[in-house]
Amino acid sequence: MPSRIEDYALIGDARTVALVGRDGSIDWWCAPRVDSAASFAALLGSARDGRWVVAPSEPVTSVERAYSTDTVVLETTVTTAGGRAVVTDFMPRHDLEHPAIIRVVRGLEGSVRFGSEVVVRFDYGALVPWVRHHDGGVDARGGADGVVLHSTVPTHGRDLTTFAGFDVVEGQQESFVLAWFPSHEDPPPAPDVDEALADTLAWWRDWASSCCVAGPWRDAVLRSLLTLKALTYEPTGGIVAAATTSLPEWIGSVRNWDYRYCWLRDATFTLNALLGNGYRDEAAAWSEWLRRAVAGSPDKLQIMYGVAGERRLDEYEIPWLSGYEGSAPVRVGNGASGQFQLDVYGEVLDMVWHTAEVLEDRLPDDTWALCRMLVEHVAKVWRLPDDGIWEVRGPQRHFVHSKVMAWVAVDRWVKLCEAERPDEPLARWRRLRDEIHDDVCDQGWNDEVGSFTQYYGCDELDASLLMLALVGFLPPDDPRIVATVEAIERDLLVDGFVLRYRTEARHPRDEVADAGRDAGGADDGTTTVDGLPPGEGSFLLTTFWLVDNLVLIGRVDEAREVFERLLALRNDVGLLSEEYDPVAGRMLGNFPQAFSHVGLVNSAANLEHGIEGPAARRSRRRARAEAPGADAATTDGSAT
Fold first, then answer.
1. pTM of the predicted model, to two decimals?
2. Which fold has domain 5-185?
3. β partners of residue 112
4. Which one of 205, 207, 249, 318 has the lowest number of neighbouring Cβ atoms within 10 Å?
């Protein structure tokens, strides 16, 4: 049985990551990339699917964990009746072609008996490797993968597992190194563990030193920024949504997705988080990754890509893994990569505009050409229904958030041209911007509900509506924005946290309901908007969006209260998952979740700086009046 999600800590090298439990078990590791097939997959199955335990062999009376200051080097201090010892887990930076996990056990007091159990299973637990013993460890190979274990203590094999038992006394140190290598090559030699640790600590601390954040939440913000860096694939600049696949959004449900890819809609939020805290190089690399990934015909734009820009992310299920706490199926790849999601055009144009403004870079010609192609495509398709920000696997709808982001695409194109190419003809684009704005205000507002709603013609709410003020579609003090925020608080705020939307089935099944069943939805005569069975935790990012909106509309004390409630959800080493079950009091969804940490960083800045925070500046920038003219627009986007 794997640990609770919140009992894991992350280690990484900005190429790949591993999850370490409080019990000393590494239950998830993919190499050589974060989206490679797992060599340790016990997180989604059992011990026989791959794990590595280094823990006391005697009863433990206490466990204390912390990251070494300003790093993702994990230190776990364990106490037994016989003594106290610390286990240091990290992924070194000395040989990035051979990602490795190093585990160092050091005695602090008395004597502690430890055991190590290594179960390597390549291809998500499917492949038992051939193992050969060598001086100081083992060499395991299967298919394209190989790992080599170097150990300072003797090891032996039994039941397809590599064991070691040893004692540590005060001042004594033992170490293990497990490194990946291509199976057709020779394994890498054992590194100097002390040098590798010193170099790794120095590298992370040097990176952390660029952080310019201050204020009461600095430690939480820096931890979130370090987590985002760990989720970066440094060679390309891509940032994955999470370290894992198939951790459920509801225990026992089918809402289990692979998040080890790069989503376009993360772009602007991630850029805000990085740029606002001193990380211009990472922001520029992320921007460049996105520009490369989306190159090509605009009708071929995907909503997500692989860490190197891969487009083929075909989704399939792994039947031999039982799923986290029985939450099957386990999925690899993501079928949503082929969906039509109108909002991503707005995300890309917003990213380009925001990067150009903040970094004060003039756009290269190829970026101008890309932006022009994208906005021309938006002009053709903005009236079509789409799959929406939440990647529903039910019928396509005219989602309000999607239409608003189509408006953003046109609005940012106008602003880009005004800033850098004032001779560009813009009358057409200003008219289209007003047309989309009027359409959303007419079709997306529901007088009976007294709020904007999830999609045209419905009476359901959606937390994505909290984006309207944040992207400047309407000013924060517009009565429609205030009313929508209040409606979301009434309907979607549960035990202090915001649901994305209600997943209960409220609509009769129609001729397109079968699409939901094909994706694992219920066949009970009804279907939800997303085509899946009901049940989901509160969504942490949307709760951070609520914080930002409360700041914008002047309810700062309430915003701070919600923010502190979110901070209290972090685990003992400061990490957040995608969702939270307030009834069971536990984390849900993939972990750690980049979007949750981006939300934390941005909301902290909004609370710290108020009307000068990023949300307020962004809202003012986006919603400000255009230059006077026959086709100018007022601050609410409507025609003058």
1. 0.92
2. Beta-galactosidase; Chain A, domain 5 (2.70.98)
3. 168
4. 205
